Every structure is written in structure tokens, then in C-alpha cells.
Amino acid sequence: MNRKNIAIALIAAVASLGGVASNAAENGNNYPEIASQGQPLTRAAVLTDLAQARAQGLIPHGDADYPVYVASVSTKSRADVKADLAQARAQGLVPQNDVDYPIIASQGPSASRADVKQELARARDAGELSVSQGS
């Protein structure tokens, strides 16, 4: 590259940075001014906040407990949960083993074996099945 191209690239870069900075200031992205508004926290206030967070279990102690799990309060009683489980079991929504997962809820009553055989016979008689279909 010759010196003329380098000078043009340098001038273009400086001009674009000035435009970006002025655009950021016009859009309210004035970090130093926003950060200086209000009263800064004292060291004692920060330490108090840290102690409260530790007491609530919000500060992780290592990679094993990150992210911090904050338990929510359940609105259901034990009896309500047991009733919901019994209802799910009655509807066949609880898997019995890994083969049953994921559970697919039935879409209403299914046809019986006799109904399926009758439909197959009707389709054969009507010629709706090819030789390779059905048995």
C-alpha cells in the first residue's frame, strides 16, 4: 500500500469514529454523565448488600453452584400435588419407563382391533389396497 491510501484510510477511520461518538451522545448513551448522577454507594452500603445476598444464597461459591437457584414458594399443598399425580396416572400421562417417553396423550377413543380388521376387509373387497399392503 502506498502512503496516499494509508492516509485516506486513516482520515476515514477518524471521521467515522467522531460520527459514532456524536450519534451515541445524541441517543442518550452518555455513560459518564449517567454514572455520576445520584449519590454513590458507600463502602458500608455495598458490604451490607453483599451480606444480604450471601444470607439469601444468591452468591455462588464456585462453578458447581452457578447459576444460583432461587427456590420459589409453591402455592399447592401436598394433597393437591398428590391429587394431580393421581389424575395424570389415570389419564396415562406418567411414563412407566424410558420407552414410554415422551408421553403422547390419546386423541380420544381409538378403534378396536375388530373395527380395524373390518375396515381392512372392506378396503380389500373394494380394491383399495395393493398386493403389498395389508396381510
Automatic annotation (TrEMBL):
Superkingdom of source: Bacteria
InterPro entries documented for this protein: DUF4148
A Pfam family this chain is assigned to: DUF4148
Keyword Lyase: no
Keyword terms, alphabetized: Signal
Annotated spans, Disordered: 104-135
Feature: compositional bias, Basic and acidic residues: 114-127
Residues spanning the signal sequence: 1-24
Protein name: DUF4148 domain-containing protein
